[in-house]
Every structure is written in structure tokens, then in C-alpha cells.
Amino acid sequence: MKSSSSQYPVNSVSKLFNAQLHFVRFLTYILILGFGVTIGVIFSFYLKDCTFSLQFTQLSVSALPRKASMQPPPPPPAITETQTSNHSHVGLKEFLKPPPIMHDMDDKELMWRASMSAKIPEYPFDRVPKVAFMFLTRGPLFFAPLWEQFFKGHEGYYSIYVHSNPSFNASQPEKNSVFHGRRIPGKEVQWGNVNMVEAERRLLANALLDVSNQRFILLSESCIPIFNFTTVYSYLMNSTQNYVMAYDENSPVGRGRYSIRMLPHVSLRQWRKGSQWFEMDRELALEVVSDRKYFPIFQQYCRGSCYADEHYLPTYVSINFWEGNSNRSLTFVDWSRGGPHPATFMRSEVTVEFLEKLRSKRCQYNGNSTNVCFLFARKFLPNTLSRLLNLAPEVMHF
Q: Which DSSP helix (H) or strand (E) runs through 332?
């Protein structure tokens, strides 16, 4: 009986401890449940707020006016027959018409425009092939009256282009002159400078804008024709070659002007020299104005004692187009007296015998020997004009 009564307090304490433990566990569960419910309520309110904000933002954006670029373009206005009748028809004739001589294109734009070429060789229209006479001058054309006599009666078979220094401000030739309005936009040119070749390319580019021009001859203010127009025109139009003088000269004024910095595009073996007074066909002229490989090299490295006008075209043509080149010039120049410049012909030297001698040189033409070798000659002093005008009908037949 004593032992039963002694165990009672122990059981009571144990029951009390278990009850407290259950209460603590229950309270813990309640707290965890409450914390979870609280978090859930807060999170649901947050999601609801975000959804509302997103809907409000979308509503606001949709309410804003759209940009013009986002709207579909309006339908084109209907073109009535009355409207079309007010506009002239643009056909091939308008496309072929060259721009005015005095245009506003810079050199980069001009070369790009001039480099265009039709892929179809046959012309879908009637045309008369023309010779482009390109005069590179410092000032006035002293021999304009002689050239007027040369061109007379042959309109439609030639084009004329004159490049002179911008500082030359002489008045325009008379309206009835073949040189009236034929001066192209030019830039400053110095003797022996690479800008002389730039002027030559500028002349070629302007002449190429006329699709009827098929042959291109470079002349100076001291050049004269030594045959009549019919002979010159027939000679050029029937020629199978270009006339760019090119030869290898192993001397200080030949190979000595070469710069090793031109490698790898131009080697010493390829370096050539020649007269700047060239004549070429349309195909080669297009290649010259389109050249973006060799000409920049000459612009950069052919300076000082390297005269680009004596080396660029001879070297360029020899590297790329030697098969179609005659390696000679059609303009007679006398270098027999020595010095950095060719001989100048004075009035007393201009005789029938002298002119006949120029007209009877021997050379090759289309693979055959001929005595019509030079078509032009230079350098003549201005005081020779009157005598040349007197002798032209008898000797040159114009």
C-alpha cells in the first residue's frame, strides 16, 4: 500500500509534463500555420497588384497614339489620264543624252558615273561613232583658228573637251566656235606633278559620258593636226590598237625613277616610260577611269623626280593590256635636242618640206607598214599660226 501511494506523484508529474509538451507542440503548429497563412495572403496581394499594374501599363500604351512609321502606308493616289499627259515620256534618247559640260560632280562622283558600261555590245539605236579631242592646256588655245579649219564640215563626228587651270579666266570663245562651252570643270595642274594624270583621267571621264565617243586623243595647246579630219577619223576608227607609248629605259630617268615601295603590285621589271600624249579606244578608257589599284600607288609614290605622266599609263597599260597596245604615240615630239623638255618649233622652221617630213614617217598600222605614222605634232610656238593657216590647204589638205 505504501509503494502504490509513492508512485502516484511520479505519474502525476509525468502526465503534467506530457500535457505541457502537447500544448507547446500545438502552439507551435498554430504559429506555423498562422505564419504560412500570413505569407500566402501577402504574396497573393502582391501578385494581384503586379497584375493590375501590368494591365494598367498595357492599357496606357494602347491608349497612346502610334508613330507614323508603324502605320500602314496610305494607298497611292490614283493617276488619271490627264495627269500622265502632262509629263513627257522618258525614253532611251533622254538616257543617252550626256550631262552639261559644266556639271557639279566632284572627281569621285565623275569617275563612278563614267565607269558605267553596257554589257551588251550591240547598240539598240542608230549612232555615229565620234572621236573625243581632249585638250589639256594651261591657258588659251593659240591654235584654235587652225583647229576650226580642221573641224569645219565634220560636225557630228567629233567631241571637244578642254581642261585648263581654274586660274585661267579668259572670256568664252565665240558662240560659232567649236570650242564654245567645251571647257570642263578643272583643277590646278603643275608640270611633272601627279595632278597632271588626274587631269587626264578627268578629261577621259567627261568624254566617256557621251556614249557616242569611241576614240579618245589627248592634245595640248601647242599641238597641231598634220592630216585632215577625214584621214584622222578613218585612221582611228579602223585601228585595232591603242596608242600608248611604253618602253623600258635602264637609266636614271627611266628605271631610276622607280620606287621599291610600289611592290608587290608594280615591280621594276614592269616599270615603263613613255609619252603622255596617248590615244585609246573606249574599252581602255573605261579601264583607266575605273583603276583603283595602280593609280593610288602612283599618287602616293611617284612624286618629285618621278613624273607620273611619263610612267603611269605606260606601266599600267603594259601590265594589263599590252596585247592591244602599239607602244607608240600618234603625236610627234622632237627629243633630239636633249634636255628635260622637247624641242619647240619656231615660225622659221614651219615650211612645206618640214611638214611633209612629219607626214611621211614609217611605222606599223594594223600589222602593216604605212607612211601615216603621226597624226599630230607639237610643240609649236603661237607665232607659227599664220604660216600654218597658209600652208594647211596645200600640205594638210584642210
A: strand 331-332
